[in-house]
Amino acid sequence: MPADPLHRAASSQRRTPSQPSRGSATSAVEVRRSARRRRTVSAYREGDRTIVLIPARMSEAEERRWVTVMLDKLEAQESKRLLGDAELSERAQRLSGQYFDGRAQPSSVRWVTNQNTRWGSCTPAEGSIRLSHRLQGMPEYVVDYVLLHELAHLLVPGHGPRFWRLLEAYPRTERARGYLEGVVSADRLPHLPTAREE
User: Fold this and answer.
1) Whole-angstrom Cα distance, residue 72 to residue 132?
2) Which stretches make up the YgjP-like metallopeptidase domain (predicted)?
């Protein structure tokens, strides 16, 4: 998220109070639109409110989506509980048991810092899974989705229908994908393949 200069009260800014934020210490969300802002979206806490800064040209639907993305991002930054490789491996085992009947058995699961064009990768022949350090600090359900995505590759190497059927078991798949697509859109990073890209 690019840092925003201190917001100036300007005639081009429109303020929109929004719904209370879910599960955070704040009670309300305020959306501020600015004609000066072209592409970036940012958010910060101000007292008991969350301020989300967006371009004036955004539609109401885009605004709702970005408010959700930014609330998740702030929540993740505030919790900032980073998993080590050992905890990540335990988490992968738990997820495999819960969603794949324990059939996906990775030989190693670890964070890597040299993976900037993917969220995760898997080498089925070795059973190794690597997650990008960029996921650290994101909501747990997002990290779980990427772990499950890579675990599914231990069972089905490609992105065909069988692969996507495996991921249907995880109830937050669509939400996690939406979150990652929002991050990609904001950061202009490559995205995970969709079922339509097979």
Assistant:
1) 18
2) 105-180
pLDDT value at residue 163: 93
Q: What six digits make up the tokens of 30?
A: 């305020």
Total Cβ atoms within 10 A of residue 77: 12
Question: Mean pLDDT, to the nearest integer, of 159-164?
Answer: 92
Residue type at 24 in one-letter notation: S
The distance of Cα 20 from the centroid of its chain, to the nearest Å, equals 21
Query: 21-49 burial by CB neighbour count: b if 16+ within 10 A, else e?
Result: beeeebeebbbbbbeebeeebbbeeeeeb
Please name each of the domains of the chain with its CATH number.
14-79 (no CATH), 85-197 (3.30.2010.10)
* pLDDT tens digit sequence for 99-149: 999 999 999 999 888 887 889 999 999 999 999 988 887 888 999 999 999
Q: How far apart are CA 129 and CA 120, in angstroms?
A: 7
Judged by DSSP in three states, 42 sits in strand
| Bridge partners, residue 129, by sequence | 109, 122
| Amino acid type, 112 | V
Confidence (pLDDT) at 99: 96
pLDDT digits over 15-24, tens only?
Answer: 444 443 343 3
Distance of alpha carbon 163 from alpha carbon 170, whole angstroms:
13
